[in-house]
């Protein structure tokens, strides 16, 4: 299980995360929803080791990831698919994917994971020699997810994977999240599409200005009048 205990994040004088605690049990999909600036990305980036000024505990099994480098965290099985995709436009699809495996040396294992990623995303296989920058927005999102999966993580954290995608592609992204989870990956999902996220999530947390204000099973929060009012358009 991944567990955050009393996490605080500061950016200079800004106290962005004010003591949040949450649990992501193995094999589950957990989502964080909340308005812009609530601290969702900061939470994921803290777990990934990308935020300097973080305090509290980030338990992963017996370990506390606070103070670990991003590379060590990836090696421990926790990967981040960042907001805005951050693919390399001049590299081919396959080169982008292989970068996700940079911490691994087991060549046959890397090939097996690559085959699995291509099975999950047949369109990436068709375009494996195409430059990343020539892909559509939806395909770039798939590439970013595929790249994160290439490190063979136990937990994959996804920051706004459906952002800016057409409705059909949004559905595709959420189907993929369920498929990945069905194949044993634990998912920590940050989404602005609260409706879709709550539908797939086993458990959900609502973040407001750096604090958790509500939590419960995803389906239960879908029916919560406070969530309906604030995040589901009434
Ligand atoms: P969004 O959906 O807009 O990304 P979010 O819920 O993910 O929002 P964060 O990006 O974590 O929220 O931001 C939380 C707070 O921390 C905001 O007030 C934001 O302005 C601030 N913040 C985030 N990153 C930095 C940074 N690098 N430097 C200074 N302030 C930051």
Automatic annotation (TrEMBL):
Transmembrane listed as a keyword: no
Entries under SMART domains matching the protein: AAA (SM00382)
Keywords: Amino-acid transport, ATP-binding, Nucleotide-binding, Transport
Pfam families documented for this protein: ABC_tran (PF00005)
InterPro entries the record matches: AAA+_ATPase (IPR003593), ABC_branched_ATPase_LivF/BraG (IPR030660), ABC_transporter-like_ATP-bd (IPR003439), ABC_transporter-like_CS (IPR017871), BCAA_Transport_ATP-bd_LivF (IPR052156), P-loop_NTPase (IPR027417)
GO biological process: L-amino acid transport
GO molecular function: ATP binding; ATP hydrolysis activity; branched-chain amino acid transmembrane transporter activity
Keyword Nucleotidyltransferase belongs to the record: no
Residue span(s) of domain ABC transporter: 2-234
Family from the record: Belongs to the ABC transporter superfamily.
Protein name per UniProt: Amino acid/amide ABC transporter ATP-binding protein 2, HAAT family
Gene source species: Aminomonas paucivorans DSM 12260
């Amino acid at each position: 299980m991944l567990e955050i205990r009393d996490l605080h994040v500061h950016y200079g004088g800004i106290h962005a995360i004010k003591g949040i605690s949450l649990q992501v049990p193995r094999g589950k999909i957990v989502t964080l929803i909340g308005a812009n600036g609530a601290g969702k990305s900061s939470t994921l980036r803290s777990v990934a080791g990308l935020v300097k000024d973080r305090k509290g505990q980030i338990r992963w099994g017996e370990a506390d990831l606070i103070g670990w480098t991003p590379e060590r965290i990836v090696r421990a099985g926790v990967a981040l698919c960042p907001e805005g995709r951050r693919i390399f436009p001049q590299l081919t699809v396959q080169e982008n994917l292989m970068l996700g495996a940079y911490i691994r040396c087991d060549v046959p294992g890397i090939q097996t994971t690559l085959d699995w990623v291509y099975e999950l995303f047949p369109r990436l296989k068709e375009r494996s020699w195409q430059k990343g920058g020539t892909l559509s927005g939806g395909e770039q999102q798939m590439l970013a997810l595929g790249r994160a999966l290439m490190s063979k993580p136990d937990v994959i954290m996804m920051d706004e994977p459906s952002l800016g995608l057409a409705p059909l592609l949004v559905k595709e992204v959420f189907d993929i999240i369920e498929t990945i989870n069905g194949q044993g990956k634990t998912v920590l999902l940050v989404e602005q599409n609260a409706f879709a996220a709550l539908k797939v999530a086993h458990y959900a947390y609502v973040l407001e200005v750096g604090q958790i204000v509500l939590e419960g099973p995803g389906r239960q929060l879908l029916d919560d009048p406070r969530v309906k009012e604030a995040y589901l358009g009434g």
